[in-house]
Each structure stands twice: as C-alpha cells, then as structure tokens.
Amino acid sequence: MIHLRITAVMSTPTVGVDTHPSLLDGPLYWAFAQRAKSRGGRMAPTSRAFAPDLPLPLAKWERGDAWGWCVSRAHYEAASHTALEVRRKPEVPAMVRFGADRKMHIGTGPWKARDSLIPVAWMPEIWWDADVTDPDDLEDLLRLITHIGARHRAGSGQVAQWSVNPGPIDGWRDRPMPDPSGRPMSIRAPHWHPTRSRPCTP
Amino acid sequence: MSTITPAHALTIELPITLTSPLHHGAGTSGNTSILRTQEVIQPDGSSVRVPFVSAASLRHHLRDRLAWHAAEHVGFTALSKAEVDLLWTGGALTTTGAEVDLEEPRMVEEHYPALGLMGYAAQSDIMAGTLRASDLVLVCRENAWRLPPGLPSELIGQRAAAFRTEEFGTRHDVASSPVARLVSAAELLTAATKTTQMIWDVQALKAGSMLYGTLGLTPSASEGHKLALAAAVALWAPGGRAVLGAKNAQGFGHAEVAFETGVVEWARDGLARWTEHVVAHAPEIRTLIARLTR
Asked: What is the reported pTM?
C-alpha cells in the first residue's frame, strides 16, 4: 500500500464538485463498472436496499460497522465561479405535425421550456490523496475517467490529464467520517445510494 | 511519477470550418441577437469570454436527426406530446416511485438503442446515455492551451475577437411597395402612421472560423449505441457537410467537418444498417415509445 496524490488537470469548468465532498472513489467505482461491462461482465443488480461493492484498488478504513475507501475529499482552488446556460425548448413543430392536441403550454408541465443557469467553477486542477493498494489498476481506471462532476455528458468537467505522484501519509483522512453526532453523508461509492449514508463529521 | 491521458472508448474528432456565419444565441438586446460566449481561464489566471457552440446544442442536432429518421422509417403518423418530447428532447419524469424498471432499458437496447445512446427520462427513471459530447470551442489564442496539436497555427495565433462579426438586415417595409395602397387603407382606419421597417442584427462568428470538439462513447456503450451514433453522424453531417447553431434556415451555421479518414464511410454504412434495424423493429419501437410515455 502506498500514499499517492492523484491530480486531474481540467480543460472545462466543473458542475457540483464544490457542493459535495466529491470523493474519488465515486468516479473510480463508475470506471470499474464501465470496464467490467465492456469486458462482458455482469454486476449484481442494484435495488433500493442493495448496491454492490466493487474491489477498487484502494485501502479500506473501518469504524464500527461502517467502512469506506482511504481517499480524501476533492481539493482545488477555484479560479472563477461562473454559470452554464442550458436551454431546453419543447419540440413544438413535431407536436404540431404528429399530435392531435390543440394547445401546448410552454410555461408549465413536464414538457415546459427551460432556461436554466447552472453554477459552474473553473478549477484548473483537482487533487485527492489516497492510500492505494494497486497503482497499476488505479492508472487503468483513471484512463477511463474523462470527466468529473455533473453535466459531463454535455462537456462539463472534462479531464485533460491525470497525474499520479507520491502523496502525504494520512492525506486521505481529510474526508467525512462516521460520527453519531454528525449529519447524514455518504461514506463510500456509489454515493447516491441510500445504503451508503451515515451520520458523519464533514 | 506518471501521467495518464484519459480517452473515450470511441472518439470522433470534429475539426469544423464554418462556410457561413454562425450564430449560437444568448438572448437579445434591442434588435440584436447576442452571440453565446463562455468564460475561459487563461494559463496566467486571467479570465476571458470566448464564443463557442455548446455541447448541448451539438447533442440536440444529433438527437433531432435521429428523431426525424425514426419518424420516417418507423412510420409514425400520430404521437402524443410526451412521445414527441421523448424522441426529440429526451423525455421527462412524469411519475414518482422508487422502483427501477429493468425491463424497459433492455427493450430500449434491443429495439431503439438511440435512446440509450443519448440518454432519456421516462416515468420515474433517468437513464444516462453513453454519448459524451464536448463543447465546440473556437480555434483561437485564448483556447490554445486546451486544443490538440495539428490545428492551423495562423488561426490559433489570433484572438477570438478577430473571428467575431455582425450580420444585419432590414425587415421589408411594405410602405414603399405597391402593397402600401392596402396598408394605407388599414392605417386610415386605425390612425396608425408608423412604418413597419425594422433593422435586425445578429452577432456571429465569421465564415472561415474554425471550431474543435469531440464526440465520444463510454466503455460500456453497446454495439447498438455505436450503430446509432454512426447514423446520427451521417444524418447530421452527410459527407462532412453539417449545420450548427441557430438560424440555419436563414443561412447561418453551415460548416465542413474534416473527419478523420474512414469516418464518413463508417457513418454512411452505419446509417444504412441503422435504417434496416429501425424498419425491421418498427412495430416494437412504436410499442416501446408508447410504453415509456404511458
């Protein structure tokens, strides 16, 4: 097991990285699943009560009945906070051609026109500290992670390059950890899944 | 210790040269349609705003072409608003519930994987697509640090402002045409005396400007997703001739895409196979679209 600092050099602004701890095990979990699928592998199906754990190349910590991966929150210096404009127009011409409805209200309902401003942050670099058990596998997974954060299907959070360097001992400890007096937070990937939530000290 | 360049499972590079002015709108100010720009942090830490075409716009062009192709080859004659929304803009959440329907994504994959390529929302599920589009960024000095090698140095050497222009026109004023006889009669009735002339103005990127972006697929993209992407590329840029941004009907946004060798043929062959697939699965696709939006 070695201590590493993993740095992403970004070429577009990120969405949501500054509003969550953004632990690196989240993208690594995604990459592991993608790699498994591309090799024909099948994961146990996720349900509301269960999400599979994957053998990430990271050391584990344990506290009581909780455990997680030894990786820190995302660190960064935001060079600028700005906004991403997103528009979504209803396809009225096709509704006219194929539909029978007499009216389409573009201001309400699930098909309303949207003009959204999404907060984004320019982060030239984002870095994490981690205790890594298999550096080669880590690099293989990083090669698949082309984006970080939300709105990635539309170009946000694009990673131009990853660099992996020796990191500080115990650098991974800068992260949420279980604490009965804390507030609910995710302790390990997949972070969106309700079973991963524990009271934590941020 | 080591550096790693992340890469998509499949990447299509898009070096695009505009053959007409391009407009990608950010609203209006008076009679002027404003060109959309994005903030770009420079290597020295300063911030500039540079025109671009958003990835969302590029994705919509692809989704729109696939939807019209489906309309033609599936033989849709009547669609509900929800069905149009699903095909053309990705759908919407219309019900609540914590149970994920695993059967529907399998049906999507089997019959109409274009939805799985682009991503969609239906009932209480949001299904992530496997397509990753990038913004189309202007080839200019402000973007030089994030552009790949090999693009024209004479363009990269110029500031973004050098590629901006404004196109203007005048809405036809019938007061100076034979139609004025009719207008005059109407004006007498309403006591209106003003003419209808109006100058419109559009901020644009000049013809000859160059944009660069990519389309990519994640490692889990299926063969169906690859086929749908090939078809979308062929429909959007047949032979490398594409339209981008807005006001295409007024002549804006025409472009040449310098695809890598073999991409045009890959897309053309893919479109032929995709069309065969859509025709063969037409009844199932009709049922699927209705099921996803019920």
From this structure: 0.90
